[in-house]
Amino acid sequence: MNYEIIGITVLWTFLYGYVIIASVDFGAGFYNFYAKATGKSNIITPIITRYLNPVWEVTNVFFVFFFVGIVGFYPETAYYYGTTLLIPASIALILLAIRGSYYAFNQYSKDSNIVWAFLYGSTGLLIPAALSITLVISEGGFIEEKFGGIDLNITELLFSQYAWSVVFLAIISVLYISSAFLTFYANRARAFQAVEVIRKWFLTWTIPMLAISQFVFLGLRTNNEAHFLNAQNYWYLFGLSLMFMGIAVYLIYKGRNYGMAFIMVMLQFFCAFFGYGMSKLPYILYPYVKIDSVVNEAMAFWLTVVFILGLLLLVPSLIMLMRMFLFDKDYVQGKEN
Amino acid sequence: MEDVLLGRILTGMTLAFHIIYATVGVGIPIVIMVFEFLGIKKNDYHYLTMARRIAKGYTVTVAVGVVTGTIIGLQLSLIWPDFMKLAGQIIALPLFMETFAFFFEAIFLGIYLYTWDRFKNRWHHWLLTIPVVIGSSISAVFITTVNSFMNTPAGFDLVDGVFKNVDPIMAMFNASTGVRVFHVVVTAYMTAAFFMVTVAAVNLLRAKHKEDREYHRKGLKVNMIIGVAVAALTLLAGDLSAKFLHEEQPEKLAAFEWHFETEKNADLILFGVLDEENQEVKGELRIPSALSILSGTSPSTEVTGLNDIPRDEWPPLVVHYFFDIMVVFGMFGLGVSVLYFALKLFKKEEWAHSRFMLYLYALSGPLCFAAIEAGWFTAELGRQPWIIRGYMRVSEAITQADGLGITMIMFGILYLILGYTTIQVMVNMFKNTSARDSQIEYYGKESLMEQGGRF
């Protein structure tokens, strides 16, 4: 296998990991605020807190890992995305900073209050919106060349139907994925009142989820038809995705096997995400950056070596983390402090 | 304003804010490690409680450190896209490794913070501090190699504006990596130790929780021990840095010292004001031949002056002030800790804890932070006008995108709010809870009677 395929596979897999784990995190923040605002906080908040406390930092590293990796494997992306995303990425960064900090302030300080919970919760929905803009731009059509360089056409972006459908897809996915996970987690914690509440949240989001996916497909057609046509070659992945979604919704509707349901949600996104990614190739940023703009041979070699060594270190550590907090019955049920 | 200047201010602002948290992030784990070790070893609940209280405050600073670190990580590409496009060919490896180290630390920090009461054998919990210390220190090492590369590039040939024949390992272990990594890591440990000295001293001075006096005295002593040891190492690191600059980056050393003429027996200049037109310094403290001795151990060492460097490659001469601040404030910590042990040695226990001395100790933490800031300003301004010394100027690397000004204002406001809230949260966290209350909360009332033997 050559380095360009290794690079993009590694990065796409990590981005997928980030989408899942961050959605749980972002959604949890929003639900936490919602529960506080509607007076259900005593049912929901302990569950969310118990899950998030030991893992929030890890979630953030997935993101850092992705953007360091993409600049590492494809330095040209730094130039194109870096130049064009100055404003949108800065906004996303500020939101991320507010969210991360106010999570900690809210969690570890005595004087936590509803304003902090609001900052932490609302940014959880705005960040995916801001970050998803990057995917929109990657389809091409929003970068204009000007004297001496390039810049982002912000007006075009603001009035793009495709951009807005991607933004809404991102937000709905967050609420959808995270409610699926929290249903599972609350059930493990034997907090059955919470399960009932969160389960309903999940079911509420299924119809919008289906609808918005269609909009995104249609938007892609007008925005980048070549990509749209190519995506049809991977129709079976999108079909599988729909099937997994069906199973997940069925299980949660029937109120059983929540663990399996969450795995189905993960598979649903896995298929859709990789279907989208594969059909996008060979472009990383249409039409400027292709995957053959990979970093020089020597660097690509060392990055791959380090990546493998790093995984050997990380995977056991992550498993240990999950066993101690996600799959430890006593911890999940709050039997120890 | 010019885009280059805006970009520099924005990057400088982000880094200046981030390094406060980053320094705490690198240094505090070692302090926690020492206290928990002493607590278990000596069966002393004071030390255990201290480790746990420090860890609690640490969590809040880690959160802000993580987010500001994420900001600077992305800002490199946002503000300096041409730099990243070029240098990405060669600095990707250490950046990538830094992320791994950070990942490793994040996982174990999560485990460490939420398993205080989980293990029957307390040593098992203590073992978790090892990956945290390794992760945080190693990530400082990797990121410093990137900065070192920018100062003393190595491991490539530049052909038609692209790096060819790249050797990522040589780039990482470039000429300045060794001294800089050493300097960065020991000063982070030092700052963390003196920060805790300040906490202990302030608590002893204010004496709000009288029952905590013994606790804070113990904390003071242990942090002084860590402090004096790493401060001595910092002194060594500073000396090595001067010798290194003399060899590899003479223009930087000359700018630090306002040294214009190449000569032997070069004087060391402390303080003073510069008349840039006439290259005259007023009101300075001049130590004859000291600069030559610092640069090469003998007074006959010839030190390159700025006049032998092309004018458009001069660093801004304002760096001298930052250099002075770094040296003086950095030495202050060493001074008070030596004084503390001297008083103890001569059995002047009451003097060592007198109000006057406590005020001095209390100053050491903030001054260390000021020294860290000044040190980074010295190092970074001293590299101007280069972004990659000898290869790419800062002005060639700035983004062409519009909107730097508004971005700078937005981030400025963000840092003000985050800084203010951090202080507020930290103060409220400990203001009304005495260490004794914490001990009861963590280990139960009976822990107050116990003299050990429990573990």
UniProtKB/TrEMBL annotation, chain A:
<feature type="transmembrane region" description="Helical">
    <location>
        <begin position="114"/>
        <end position="137"/>
    </location>
</feature>
<feature type="transmembrane region" description="Helical">
    <location>
        <begin position="202"/>
        <end position="222"/>
    </location>
</feature>
<dbReference type="Pfam" id="PF02322">
    <property type="entry name" value="Cyt_bd_oxida_II"/>
</dbReference>
<feature type="transmembrane region" description="Helical">
    <location>
        <begin position="299"/>
        <end position="321"/>
    </location>
</feature>
<keyword id="KW-1133">Transmembrane helix</keyword>
<comment type="similarity">
    <text>Belongs to the cytochrome ubiquinol oxidase subunit 2 family.</text>
</comment>
<feature type="transmembrane region" description="Helical">
    <location>
        <begin position="6"/>
        <end position="34"/>
    </location>
</feature>
<keyword id="KW-1003">Cell membrane</keyword>
<dbReference type="InterPro" id="IPR003317">
    <property type="entry name" value="Cyt-d_oxidase_su2"/>
</dbReference>
<keyword id="KW-0472">Membrane</keyword>
<feature type="transmembrane region" description="Helical">
    <location>
        <begin position="55"/>
        <end position="74"/>
    </location>
</feature>
<feature type="transmembrane region" description="Helical">
    <location>
        <begin position="162"/>
        <end position="182"/>
    </location>
</feature>
<feature type="transmembrane region" description="Helical">
    <location>
        <begin position="80"/>
        <end position="102"/>
    </location>
</feature>
<feature type="transmembrane region" description="Helical">
    <location>
        <begin position="234"/>
        <end position="253"/>
    </location>
</feature>
<keyword id="KW-0812">Transmembrane</keyword>
<feature type="transmembrane region" description="Helical">
    <location>
        <begin position="260"/>
        <end position="279"/>
    </location>
</feature>
<dbReference type="GO" id="GO:0005886">
    <property type="term" value="C:plasma membrane"/>
</dbReference>
<protein>
    <submittedName>
        <fullName>Cytochrome bd menaquinol oxidase subunit II</fullName>
    </submittedName>
</protein>
Automatic annotation (TrEMBL), chain B:
<keyword id="KW-0813">Transport</keyword>
<keyword id="KW-0472">Membrane</keyword>
<protein>
    <submittedName>
        <fullName>Cytochrome bd menaquinol oxidase subunit I</fullName>
    </submittedName>
</protein>
<feature type="transmembrane region" description="Helical">
    <location>
        <begin position="126"/>
        <end position="150"/>
    </location>
</feature>
<dbReference type="GO" id="GO:0020037">
    <property type="term" value="F:heme binding"/>
</dbReference>
<dbReference type="Pfam" id="PF01654">
    <property type="entry name" value="Cyt_bd_oxida_I"/>
</dbReference>
<keyword id="KW-0479">Metal-binding</keyword>
<dbReference type="GO" id="GO:0070069">
    <property type="term" value="C:cytochrome complex"/>
</dbReference>
<dbReference type="GO" id="GO:0046872">
    <property type="term" value="F:metal ion binding"/>
</dbReference>
<dbReference type="InterPro" id="IPR002585">
    <property type="entry name" value="Cyt-d_ubiquinol_oxidase_su_1"/>
</dbReference>
<keyword id="KW-1133">Transmembrane helix</keyword>
<feature type="transmembrane region" description="Helical">
    <location>
        <begin position="58"/>
        <end position="80"/>
    </location>
</feature>
<comment type="similarity">
    <text>Belongs to the cytochrome ubiquinol oxidase subunit 1 family.</text>
</comment>
<keyword id="KW-1003">Cell membrane</keyword>
<feature type="transmembrane region" description="Helical">
    <location>
        <begin position="15"/>
        <end position="38"/>
    </location>
</feature>
<feature type="transmembrane region" description="Helical">
    <location>
        <begin position="225"/>
        <end position="245"/>
    </location>
</feature>
<feature type="transmembrane region" description="Helical">
    <location>
        <begin position="181"/>
        <end position="205"/>
    </location>
</feature>
<feature type="transmembrane region" description="Helical">
    <location>
        <begin position="86"/>
        <end position="114"/>
    </location>
</feature>
<feature type="transmembrane region" description="Helical">
    <location>
        <begin position="358"/>
        <end position="377"/>
    </location>
</feature>
<dbReference type="GO" id="GO:0016682">
    <property type="term" value="F:oxidoreductase activity, acting on diphenols and related substances as donors, oxygen as acceptor"/>
</dbReference>
<keyword id="KW-0408">Iron</keyword>
<dbReference type="GO" id="GO:0019646">
    <property type="term" value="P:aerobic electron transport chain"/>
</dbReference>
